[in-house]
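This follows on from our talk about sequence and fold. Can you supply me with one protein entry, sequence and fold together? Could you add the entry underneath, on a fresh line?
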Amino acid sequence: MRCKDFYTDAHLVVAAIRVLEHQNNNPPSIDKICQTLLFSLEQGNRICRKLKESGIIEIIEGTYGTKLFIRNHQKIEEIPRDSKGSKLEEELKKFQNAKKNYTEKIQAFQTEQTQRKKSLFAELDKKLKETVEKK
């Protein structure tokens, strides 16, 4: 399971661009980056778009397809390093706690209802015995 943040993905993409450019003597495409990093094409496009917006890479579309170039790799260090996985875990824990509280409320309500039924039957039984004794 991959629980990486954008900071880590940015480093991976920039490193893959460098390695593939070195191996092939030409800039790689988003497709080639995704194949190398085992990213889905959608995930690769999303990451590359964010990196382009941040000024880290340049995406050039030409007759030979879309090529990636490193513009300023030092801007990666400006990306916050908060983990996406930890946010997901926090939200999951919140949900589980809310569900647990809800279950406890239901159990308390059911217990209260059971007690009410018992007291109601006890009262009815008491009244019935009183009416039988009076006759």
